[in-house]
Design a protein that fits this description.
Number of strands: 2
Number of helices: 17
Helix content: 55-70%
């Protein structure tokens, strides 16, 4: 489920990173990958079975996250009301319905695998090629090193998982990181829609068992072991396409879809790896919806935290219609002045994000116990960023809201305690309160 994708800035990797970005931008599969495929056949073609993988860059900003909630009692997925009628009388599917359709597909995939009695942690794989197991372990180790260096809190949580789940989450984390760097990294200005098309083609090769480098290899192995579908990965790339062409969002429906693309997708990728507790009585759909809810909550929190930073790049990830209703404009954002209108607007935005966090809570409890702590830690820490925005008097133009190390350490025992709650008991408790 949640992978708490935090910032990753790796100056040491910058020297080798350009090869990876150049290869994607130019479409040259050999660029930056010659050391990975040293063996050639008689026709001069690369022999894939003798490949060697090498590290590619992992730097730039990251805005990812995810995890849990029960949709039946929520207004966040108004599926019945999500079929709208256009001026021409045509049926138009809302953003919420589009996303929920993906949720249902992912849940069905997991249920189908469980119905076939295939153990999630031990799905049958093809016989590995001689010598490839060592390379694969190296690939996973490198993914773990990246996670340990740039997502320290979450990395500690992953150590509580089974070794297989732990490695799989690391692999997903790294792929998301690399995808984000294409549009938010130091070479983002040189990335084109065509480059993203090539990255998506490369993703398809990863899912078909033909990785290009060691980090792709870890993900390729992960998707063979777990019922992970390619659609959320494709959707994340779609979110990167939006960042190339879109810097304003007319309403929350548009913003919601963007949040799904760049963050909610991570939850859908991760649910099969995190695992659902055997004693859970929750539906698979509700657990996936929970993953989506936390992804949306975390991304909304990122957006509210980074208003000033995004404005400096000419981007405003806030609903334009709600800004207008509050008596605010783009100019007010660029001027960066905290006014009563801004405070009132921010209170409403923070309230919305907290609703998604509340919806996420129930689903976290349904996870496999070994996976709950890192997810609870993510939820607790990200939610506290909203508290810090309030503590800064809603000045997210020139002040960056962050959770201090002391507060992070205080949150970890709380998260651990919540991870011990038995599946479904939190939902029952909430129903009693209601």
């Amino acid at each position: 489920m949640e992978t708490l994708l935090l910032r990753m800035v790796s100056p040491a990797d910058a020297r080798v990173g350009l090869g990876f970005l150049e290869a994607v931008r130019e479409g040259d599969r050999s660029q930056g990958k010659v050391p990975m495929f040293p063996a050639m056949n008689h026709d001069g073609e690369i022999q894939r079975r003798n490949r060697r993988w090498s590290l590619r860059s992992l730097y730039a900003d990251s805005k990812y996250a995810c995890v849990g909630f029960e949709p039946e009692k929520s207004s966040l997925f108004p599926c019945a009301a999500s079929l709208l009628t256009s001026a021409g009388g045509e049926i138009v599917v809302s953003s919420e319905q589009k996303v929920y359709d993906v949720v249902l597909k992912q849940a069905a995939l997991v249920k189908r695998q469980l119905s076939l009695n295939i153990a999630v942690d031990a799905k049958k794989q093809d016989t590995p090629l001689p010598g490839s197991l060592g390379l694969l372990e190296d690939a996973y180790d490198r993914c773990g090193e990246v996670c340990a260096e740039y997502a320290k809190t979450f990395y500690l949580g992953t150590l509580l998982m089974t070794p297989e789940r732990r490695k799989a989450i690391w692999a997903i984390y790294v792929w998301c990181r690399r995808t984000d760097e294409l549009v938010d990294g130091p070479n983002a200005s040189q990335i084109t829609p065509t480059a993203l098309d090539r990255w998506e083609s490369r993703l398809e090769d990863v899912f078909s068992g033909q990785p290009y480098d060691m980090l792709d290899a870890a993900l390729s192995d992960t998707v063979r072991k777990y019922p992970v579908d390619i659609q959320p990965f494709r959707d994340m790339i779609e979110g990167m396409r939006l960042d190339l062409k879109k810097s304003r969002y007319k309403n929350f429906s548009e913003l919601y879809l963007y949040c799904y693309y760049v963050a909610g997708t991570v939850g859908l990728m991760s649910v099969p790896v995190m695992g659902i507790a055997q004693e859970s009585k929750a539906t698979t759909e509700s657990v996936y919806s929970a993953a989506l809810a936390l992804g949306i909550a975390n991304q909304l929190t990122n957006i509210l935290r980074d208003v000033g930073e995004d404005a400096s790049r000419g981007r405003i990830y806030l609903p334009q219609d709600e800004l207008a209703q509050a008596g605010l404009s783009d100019e007010d954002i660029f001027n960066g002045k905290v006014t009563d209108k801004w405070r009132s607007f921010m209170k409403d935005q923070i309230k919305r994000a907290r609703v998604f966090f509340q919806e996420a809570e129930i689903g976290v409890t349904e996870l496999n116990q070994a996976s709950r702590w890192p997810v609870w830690a993510s939820l607790e820490l990200y939610r506290r960023i909203l508290d810090e925005i309030e503590a800064n008097d809603y000045n997210n133009f020139t002040k960056r809201a962050y959770v201090s190390k002391a507060k992070k350490f205080m949150a970890l025992p709380i998260a651990y305690g919540r991870s011990l709650v038995r599946p479904s008991s939190l939902r029952q408790s909430n129903l009693v309160k209601a």
